[in-house]
Amino acid sequence: MLLFFALLAAFGLAGCGATTTPAAAPPPAAQVPQVAEISVQQLKTSLDAGNPIFLLDVRTPAEFAGDGHIPGSVLIPVEELASRMAEVPSDQPIACVCRSGNRSLTACNMLAANGFDVELYSMAGGMRAWIAAGFPYE
After folding, report:
1. Measured CA distances, 112 to 50, 59, 94, 106 (Å)
2. Whose CB among 16, 19, 30, 59 lies 3.0–4.6 Å from 63's, allowing a Cys bridge?
3. What is the pTM of this model?
């Protein structure tokens, strides 16, 4: 019996108020920037006001040339974005544009996951909505 209490004491389990050391809190998760949706009207207003915003068109080259694109936009197809991240500035807001809004959201999420800590916007409705609104395109 004495051996039993000696073992309990050795492992810090003796006494009715045995305590354990609380585990250290895990480090905070890295803050991932939020991706927001921007309407074509909001984007047009921002561009007209001269606000700095990088226009990233993530469609295919055929869509970019054949369907038109927003003046000043830079083409990096979403399929190539992972290998071309260095071409995207990390010091200004970025608006991603595609045909209808799906690929642009994917591109924004890719940028956020790769450490782009800037405002990231996915243009709602894509180029279809931009053209339907009567905004200029090339």
Report:
1. 24, 19, 11, 10
2. 59
3. 0.76
Number of domains in the chain: 1
- Whether 74 contacts 55, CB under 8 Å: yes
Instruction: Judge whether residue 49 has pLDDT over 80.
Output: yes
The answer to whether position 47 is within a domain reads yes
Choose among 47, 72, 78, 73: nearest CA to 60.
Answer: 78
Please check whether residue 21 lies inside any domain of the structure.
Answer: no
Q: Share the mean pLDDT of the chain.
A: 85
Q: Which CATH number do you get for residue 68?
A: 3.40.250.10
Amino acid in the structure at residue 104: S
pLDDT at 10 over 60: no
Percent of the chain with pLDDT over 70: 76
